């Protein structure tokens, strides 16, 4: 009894060559595009084998195998090149910086006082045992052509080390000089006759007087960035500011603490840059030097404080209450002394509010500017 063909016999099926494992191993190599293509060919070969397309599976499998081998070769080449470059660069860096970082003095120093007299030369040669003919060449008086003295390795090492230390000192001086003094306000509220302030910023050596301003005493002192301890002297008694933060010093004394941060003055720095740019743009002076000496700020000028605020500037329109029947967008007519002044609201929730009133013919306009900081 004959039967029809039911496909290839299971025993005659060629063995499965699992190229998928090889391509998954090659995925760890740096040649990523080749790995992805090899993985796609492996999956297609596996699918063709399941569909009994053995010829197509064999062809796709060979491609996946070849791409996997290429990926392995490229990966090994990249790793080998990286190792060679890394160790070569490290050895060069170590050889160059060894003398600079070595702070131990050399065993035999070659920098000696140059002899200037014949007797000194003979005495030095006899003491060091270099009076033989095969010794180092003689040093000519007032000559700089002594190659053995100025070209030795330890002399070069000392020169490199000295250059390294000078570079470090320059960096330290630049870092110290970059700290800018910031105007800091000290305020004492309360009844008093004389109020002074002193702190770690002046080593507690002197007392800076505070100027009386209406109901409080104010002083503006230029302080460097960082933390500073201070204390008020009110009518001859050292007193703490109850509204400020306190800290205990190493000696057990309780003082007030103020922290001067650069971020607190970023707005003022930006305004200063804007004003300088606008001044340069509006300047009608011809370019070129004028040969004038710059104005030098005297020490007594720094102790001067700003003048008192005129009382008419305290009457800010935006601070006045308007009636219920009034339109909130309409403000009362301002006085002429209130015009063209910049008013600022205390910074809250990271927003700074500025306002200014101007007059155009018979109309007055008050502008508010909200600026996040």
Automatic annotation (TrEMBL):
Signal peptide: none annotated. Keywords: Fatty acid metabolism, Lipid biosynthesis, Lipid metabolism, Membrane, Phosphoprotein, Transmembrane, Transmembrane helix. One of its GO terms (biological process) is nervous system development. It comes from the Eukaryota. InterPro entries: AMPK1_CBM, ASC_dom, ASC_dom_sf, CD225/Dispanin_fam, CRP1_MDG1_kinase, Ig-like_fold, Ig_E-set. GO terms for molecular function: protein kinase binding. It is found in: Membrane. One of its GO terms (cellular component) is membrane. Residues 276-295 are annotated as: Disordered. The keyword Ion transport does not apply. The chain crosses the membrane at residues 20-44, 64-85. Residues 283-373 form the Association with the SNF1 complex (ASC) domain. Belongs to the 5'-AMP-activated protein kinase beta subunit family. Non-catalytic subunit of AMP-activated protein kinase (AMPK), an energy sensor protein kinase that plays a key role in regulating cellular energy metabolism. In response to reduction of intracellular ATP levels, AMPK activates energy-producing pathways and inhibits energy-consuming processes: inhibits protein, carbohydrate and lipid biosynthesis, as well as cell growth and proliferation. AMPK acts via direct phosphorylation of metabolic enzymes, and by longer-term effects via phosphorylation of transcription regulators. This is Association with the SNF1 complex (ASC) domain-containing protein. It comes from Mugilogobius chulae.
């Amino acid at each position: 009894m004959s039967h029809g063909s039911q496909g290839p016999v299971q025993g005659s099926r060629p063995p499965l060559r699992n190229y998928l494992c090889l391509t998954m191993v090659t995925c760890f190599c740096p040649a990523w595009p080749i790995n992805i293509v090899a993985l796609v060919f492996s999956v297609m070969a596996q699918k063709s084998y399941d569909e009994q397309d053995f010829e197509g599976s064999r062809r796709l499998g060979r491609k996946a195998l070849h791409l996997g081998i290429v990926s392995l070769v490229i990966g090994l080449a990249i790793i080998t090149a990286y190792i060679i470059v890394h160790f070569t660069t490290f050895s060069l860096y170590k050889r160059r910086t060894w003398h600079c970082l070595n702070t131990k003095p050399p065993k035999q120093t070659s920098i000696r006082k140059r002899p200037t007299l014949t007797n000194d030369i003979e005495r030095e040669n006899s003491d060091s045992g270099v009076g033989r003919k095969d010794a180092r060449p003689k040093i000519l008086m007032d000559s700089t052509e002594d190659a053995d003295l100025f070209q030795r390795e330890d002399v070069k090492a000392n020169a490199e080390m000295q250059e390294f230390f000078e570079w470090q000192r320059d960096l330290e001086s630049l870092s110290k000089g970059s700290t800018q003094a910031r105007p800091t306000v000290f305020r004492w509220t309360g009844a008093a006759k004389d109020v002074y302030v002193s702190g770690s910023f002046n080593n507690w050596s002197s007392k800076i007087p505070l100027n009386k301003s209406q109901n409080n005493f104010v002083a503006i002192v230029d302080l460097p960035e960082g933390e500073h301890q201070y204390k008020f002297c009110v009518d001859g008694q050292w007193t703490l500011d109850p509204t400020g933060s306190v800290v205990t010093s190493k000696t057990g004394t309780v003082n007030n603490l103020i922290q001067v941060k650069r971020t607190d003055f970023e707005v003022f720095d930006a305004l200063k840059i804007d004003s300088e740019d606008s001044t340069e743009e509006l300047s009608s002076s011809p370019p070129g030097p004028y040969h004038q000496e710059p104005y030098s700020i005297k020490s007594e000028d720094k102790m001067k404080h700003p003048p008192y605020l005129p009382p008419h500037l305290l009457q800010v329109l935006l601070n006045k209450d308007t009636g219920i029947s009034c339109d909130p967008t309409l403000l009362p007519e301002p006085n002429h002394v209130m015009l063209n002044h910049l008013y600022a609201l205390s910074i809250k929730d990271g927003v700074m509010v500025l306002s200014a009133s101007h007059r155009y013919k018979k109309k007055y306009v008050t502008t508010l500017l909200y600026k996040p900081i």
